[in-house]
Write a structure and sequence with these properties.
Layout (H helix, E strand, L loop, with lengths): L1 H14 L2 H4 L4 H7 L2 H10 L14 H8 L2 H10 L12 H7 L3 H9 L14 H7 L3 H9 L14 H7 L3 H7 L3
Helix pairs in contact: 3-5, 5-6, 5-7, 6-8, 7-8, 7-9, 8-10, 9-10, 9-11, 10-12, 11-12
């Protein structure tokens, strides 16, 4: 009886699609999978990297938020819209909030727009200022981030630097 059950289980396992046994959800891969996982999935579903989950997050936003550099780097080069924004913002904002300097640099070097806002009018520069990410604020300014953009509270990134009495940020954000 035991051998018969083992044979049945063996045949059932053979009937399960291979991708069910691997990490096949693009959003899971974005969060913590490997580039190899992603490429395997793309081979089966080429446009999967441009899909959105139920929260309207893209795989790129999730990879940037989770610091999955290798996957983020691939997505940055291959997605249709590096500047896609949901209500909470862009991939650049996600990397900025997480203070992920290498991913922020990669995004900016690939033409991520630093002036896109979330639904509250917040930009990546606002987040860099609020979280005192000096190096990221500097990079954003070097990539022509607009320091004059106001959020829903009618505050610029410079205003937040003044409120925080942060001389280092004030100097970074001074317009010429």
């Amino acid at each position: 009886m035991g051998k018969k059950i083992a044979k049945i289980v063996f045949f059932i396992v053979l009937l399960i699609p291979i991708d069910c046994l691997s990490q096949s959800d693009v959003f899971d891969i974005a969060r913590g999978g490997t580039l190899e996982n992603l490429k395997e999935l793309i081979a089966q579903k080429p446009d999967v990297i441009n899909t959105l989950n139920d929260d309207r997050n893209s795989p790129l936003i999730l990879a940037c938020y989770k610091g999955n550099y290798e996957v983020a780097a691939y997505l940055i080069k291959n997605v249709k819209d590096i500047n896609y924004a949901n209500d909470m913002g862009t991939a650049l904002m996600a990397a900025t909030v997480k203070n992920d300097i290498p991913i922020v640099k990669l995004l900016l070097d690939n033409n991520a727009n630093p002036d896109i806002t979330d639904v509250k009018g917040t930009t990546a520069l606002h987040y860099a200022t609020i979280f005192k990410n000096y190096e990221i604020a500097t990079m954003l300014m070097e990539h022509k981030a607009n320091v004059e953009l106001k959020d829903i509270r009618q505050k610029t990134a410079f205003d937040y630097a003044v409120i925080a009495n942060d001389d280092k940020l004030i100097n970074i954000l001074k317009t010429k």
